Amino acid sequence: MMESIIAKSDVRDVLERALEGQRLSAQDGVRLFESDDISASGAVANEIRMRINGNRAYYVVNRHINYTDICKNRCRFCAFSRNEGDSDAYAMSVDEIVHRAETEWQAMKFSELHIVGGLHPDLPLSYYTEMLSALSKRFPSVHIQAFTAVEIAHIAEVAGITIQQALIELRDAGLGSIPGGGAEVFSPRVRSIVCPEKMSGKKWLEVIRQAHQLGIKSNSTMLYGHVETYQERVEHMIALRDLQDQTGGFMTFIPLKFHAANTDLIGLASPMSAIDDLKVYSVARLIIDNIPHLKVFWIMLGLKLVQVALSFGADDFDGTVVEEKITHRAGASTPEGLTVAVIKHLIEETGHVPVERDTVYNLISTEQI
Ligand code: V47
Ligand code: SF4
């Protein structure tokens, strides 16, 4: 069946090499994006996904917390950030953050806290370390995945210490791993249009390299669907693949679908069809051959398309989330959180086996395998 679909494809040679386990080039990746034959590239991406992860679809019981929306960068794609003094700008105290987590804890014993925020100009290093220490003390079994590479560079800069020192301080206070945000698209051309104040892609990769060298694992992302070209997407994926070859510290790659509402990019970004979305997943699975997991952040993709993406290379549904501001301020129509029962049902409807994992992909529940 798959062979006959591939035989008719305009990217047959690329797909055959991928199936043989050969590494694809940037040119191969661009050709995959240019081809409209998503059934062929999807089938091969699914085959690779099955080889790595079988029929499982992972999920995590987690709680997101966005500790502040005050940010000095004000990226043009971001509807979440605010200036200090804006009427709805906020910065939570450490007590408020612990309280936020506490409200869910009785009902839902989450295994992960996912904590990110804006680049607040004044918060000292002690705010971040006290946050981590207080949460680790109150929830000793919970893995804290916090602060993107961009936040870590900012924390180091405000504190006047090196990236390595900041990473060590944060790790010693309870940081478990680093989320994948802030990567956007590494191309300097794209960054100059969509996030001119944000640190370079090169620096993002350098912060993550240092984290991996200290044994701190991380995720990786790509924000797609704004002004980037196919070539720039593929180069981004290959930069992640190259770093992974050197460190092995990436756990997952997460394509993040751009939402334009309330951002400065309305009108500039080209609308993405469901077919464009699925291509991002299948191409990512085929190009990034060394990062084991490919996550769909259901909040951004929508629940129906997430179900389809699980057969186009993706193997991870992310989690319960509970509260989400970054995409909802930019017009997302998905819920802010899902119960475990709903996640399992949505996965089972697709014929995949739901498997609860912790942040670093240890299996928590393996009911049906
Ligand atoms: O870096 C900002 C993105 C990221 C918008 O590691 C937007 O498991 C869409 O990285 N439309 C932060 N996206 C969130 C993030 C993330 C999310 C879920 C899981 C993980 C993980 C990481 O959100 C930012 C940026 O790329 N973003 N604004 C927007 N308007
Ligand atoms: Fe700030 Fe992050 Fe929003 Fe950029 S994406 S403005 S760095 S909160």
Q: What's the structural blueprint in terms of helices and strands?
A:
Blueprint: H1 2-7, H2 12-19, H3 26-34, H4 38-53, E1 56-60, E2 62-66, H5 94-105, E3 112-116, H6 125-138, E4 143-146, H7 149-159, H8 163-173, H9 188-194, H10 201-213, E5 218-224, H11 230-247, E6 250-257, H12 274-287, E7 293-294, H13 298-301, H14 303-309, E8 316-319, H15 340-349, E9 353-357, E10 363-365
Parallel strand pairs: 1-8, 1-9, 2-3, 3-4, 5-6, 6-7
Antiparallel strand pairs: 9-10
The protein binds ligand V47 and iron/sulfur cluster (SF4).
Write a short abstract of this structure.
By secondary structure, the chain is α/β, with parallel strands linked by helices. The protein has helices spanning 2-7, 12-19, 26-34, 38-53, 94-105, 125-138, 149-159, 163-173, 188-194, 201-213, 230-247, 274-287, 298-301, 303-309, 340-349; strands spanning 56-60, 62-66, 112-116, 143-146, 218-224, 250-257, 293-294, 316-319, 353-357, 363-365.
Word description of this protein:
The structure is a single chain. The protein has 369 residues and is α/β, with parallel strands linked by helices. 43% of the residues lie in helices and 13% in strands. It has 15 helices and 10 strands. The site of iron/sulfur cluster has 12 residues, from loops. The site of iron/sulfur cluster (SF4) has 12 residues, from loops.
